[in-house]
C-alpha cells in the first residue's frame, strides 16, 4: 500500500531537535462518491491553513522552537532547515515537514529562493 511520506521535526530523548522520516498510510476509502476510492492520510483536524511567502535568506541562523505544531508543504522555491544537532535538510516543492519541536533549543530555517512559499497547516498540540 502507498503512504504519504513526510519528515517530522521532533525533540529527541536527549532534548535536541532532530529529523525523523515517517510515512502515513492512505486509507483507501470512498471520499468523493461516485468516484473510485481515493486514499487520505490523516494528520488530524486543522486549526487554520495559510500560505507563507518569503524571499531568499529569510529566517537566518537563529535557533528557536516551533510556536505551534504545524505541517509545512513547500509549494514554491525551497527551504533549508538545521536542527540543534546540526543536521541539515533542504525541502523542495511537494515535500512536507511536520514541525513538532515545541520546546528545547529548536531549529533554524531559511528560504533559499525569492518567492519561496509553503502551505502551513496549524495542528493541535499533542503536549
Keywords:
six-stranded mixed β-sheet, 9 strands, 0% helix, single chain, mainly beta, three-stranded antiparallel β-sheet
Describe the fold and architecture.
With 127 residues, the chain is mainly β. It has one domain: Jelly Rolls (Sandwich), CATH 2.60.120.10. It has no helices and nine strands. A six-stranded mixed beta sheet has the order 2-1-7-4-9-3, with no helix packed on it. The chain has a three-stranded antiparallel beta sheet with strand order 6-5-8, with no helix packed on it. Strand 5 and strand 6 form a beta hairpin. The chain is globular and about 50 Å long. It starts with a strand and ends in a 5-residue tail after the last strand. The mean pLDDT is 93.
* Assembly state: single chain
Shape: globular
- What spatial order of strands do you see in the largest sheet? 2-1-7-4-9-3
Total helices: the number is 0
CATH superfamily: Jelly Rolls
Q: What distance separates the N and C termini?
A: 31 Å
> Which class of secondary structure composition applies to the elements?
mainly beta
CATH class, anyone?
Answer: Mainly Beta
Q: How many domains comprise the coordinates?
A: 1
Looking at CATH, which topology would you report? Answer: Jelly Rolls
The low-confidence runs, each spanning 5 or more residues with pLDDT under 50, are: none
Percentage of residues in helical conformation: under 10%
Largest sheet geometry: 6 strands, mixed
Strand content is: over 45%
- N-to-C series of helices and strands: EEEEEEEEE
Q: Rg to the nearest angstrom? A: 15 Å
Kindly report the average pLDDT value.
93
Amino acid at each position: 500500500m502507498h503512504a504519504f511520506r513526510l519528515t517530522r521535526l521532533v525533540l529527541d530523548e536527549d532534548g535536541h531537535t532532530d529529523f525523523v522520516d515517517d510515512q502515513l498510510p492512505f486509507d483507501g476509502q470512498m471520499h468523493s462518491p461516485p468516484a473510485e476510492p481515493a486514499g487520505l492520510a490523516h494528520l488530524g483536524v486543522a486549526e487554520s491553513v495559510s500560505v507563507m511567502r518569503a524571499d531568499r535568506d529569510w529566517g537566518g541562523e537563529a535557533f528557536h522552537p516551533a510556536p505551534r505544531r504545524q505541517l509545512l508543504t513547500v509549494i514554491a522555491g525551497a527551504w533549508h532547515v538545521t536542527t540543534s544537532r546540526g543536521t541539515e535538510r533542504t525541502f523542495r516543492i511537494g515535500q512536507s515537514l511536520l514541525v513538532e519541536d515545541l520546546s528545547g533549543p529548536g531549529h533554524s530555517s531559511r528560504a533559499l529562493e525569492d518567492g519561496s512559499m509553503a502551505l502551513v497547516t496549524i495542528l493541535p498540540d499533542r503536549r
